[in-house]
Write a structure and sequence with these properties.
Radius of gyration: 23 Å
Largest sheet: 7 strands, mixed
Distance between the termini: 59 Å
Order of helices and strands: HHHHEHEEHEEHEEHEHEHEHEHEH
Number of helices: 13
Helix content: 40-55%
CATH topology of the largest domain: Heat Shock Protein 90
Low-confidence stretches: 1-12, 78-83, 142-148, 295-316
Number of domains: 3
Amino acid sequence: MVKNKSDLPMSIFDKDRKKVEQVSLFALISLIVAIILLSFNLRLISGCVVIVATSLGVIAVRTALGLIKEVRESFVDASDSSEKKDDVITNFSHRIREPLNNLVIIGDLLMGSGLQKKQKELLETFIASTNNMVTTVNELTMKSAGNISYEDRKSIRFNIVSTIQNTIDLFNLKDTSKIDFILNNKEFGHYEMIGDPIILKQILLDIFSTIESQNYSRITKVTINLKKAKETNNETFVNCRIQTDWNVVLIDEKGLAGNLASKLIAYSRGYFHQEFGNNFTVLDVVIPFYNAMPESKIQIASQKIGELRQKELTHKELKDLKLLLVEDNIVNQKITLLTLKPMVGIIDTATNGREALDKFGTSNYDLILMDIQMPVMSGLLAAEKIRALEASTNVHIPLIAITANAMLGDKERCISAGFDDYISKPFQPSALVEIIKRFI
C-alpha cells in the first residue's frame, strides 16, 4: 500500500538534497580551478571551466526546484495535521538551505573572477535562477511572515537584448524543453541600459516556468517582442511583450502562477497587463531602466574609484580582525572561509559548541560566527555559556548566528540565547561582511 507523501521518510528528500550538495561541490571545485587558470592568464581554458561550473550549478538548481515541488505536495497532503505541516516544512527548510547557500556563494565568487562578457551573462542567468529558488524557499518557509525581502544590487551597464537571449538559452538547457522561443527586437533600438539584469532574468524565468508547468502535452510557441513604452531624459520604459499560442495564465496574483514575477515587477517600479484570447495569451511587462549615456562611463569609473578607496580602508580594518568560525559541516566551513579569507586577518575554526568554548577560553577573538545545529553542543547552548563566562568581566565578544534555521521565531531564539545578530542561509557574502562591519 502506497503511503501519502506526507508520510514519506525524510530520507527521500535527503537523496535529492545530497545530490544538490554534491553537484554544488563539483561546481565549487571548478570555480577554484578557473581562478587558478585566471592567475596564469589562461582565459580561454578558464572560461570553459566557468561554463562547466555554471552548468553544474544549473543542474543543482533544477534538482532543488524538484525537491521544493515534492515538499509543496507533501505540505498539501499534510493538510489534516498542522503539526505535520510544520515538521515537513521545518525539516525541508533546514536541509535545503545548506546546499542552497553554497550555490549562492559560488555564484558570488564567480562574478568576481574576471569573466568575459558571454560567460558573465550566462552566470547572471544562473544567479537569477538561484535567486528564484531562494525566494521560493523563503515563501514556503516564511509564509506566515506576510512579506518577502529582495536584495538591492548595484546598477550596471548591460545589453538588454543579449540579456533576454541568454536567459532563453539557459532555459533551453533542459533535456526536454517544452517552449519554442522567438525573440523580436526590431522595434527596439536602444540595446544598452543601466539597471539590474538579474532581476529581469528572474522575472522571465518565473514566467517561462509558469508556462511550462501548465503545459503537459505540447510545445508552446512563445514570442517575445521588445519595444519602447515611453522615454524620459533619464529613463526608458521597456515593454517586453510575451505572447503564447494558447490560453494560459502567466501571472495570477492570487495564486502561485507567476506570483514571484508579479512581486519583482512591482519591486522594479514596473507594471504589467495581461490579455486572454481563445488561443493566445499576451502579457505586457513594462519596466524602467536608466539610459546608458556615453558620458556615464566616466561617471561610473569615477564612482568606482571612490568605492575602491572606501573598500581599501575597510579592508585594512578587516585585516586586523581575529575571528572564530564555528561550523560542523566541513564543506560549508570551507566555502565560508573561501569568502572571508581574502578580507579577514586570522580565522580559526571549530566544529561544535564545545570546541568553540575551549578556543574561546584560550584565545582573544574580535568576533564569533556560529552555526546553530551542531553535534556535541549546539550553538544556542554555546552562546549561553559564553555570555555566562563574560558576566564577571567587562568583555563582550560579538556573536553572529549563521544558520539554516529560518522559521519564524528562530531569530528571536538566537537573540535571547545571547547572539548579537543573525543571518539565515542562504545569504550573499556581502550581507555577511556588512553584518561583521557593524560589530567591529
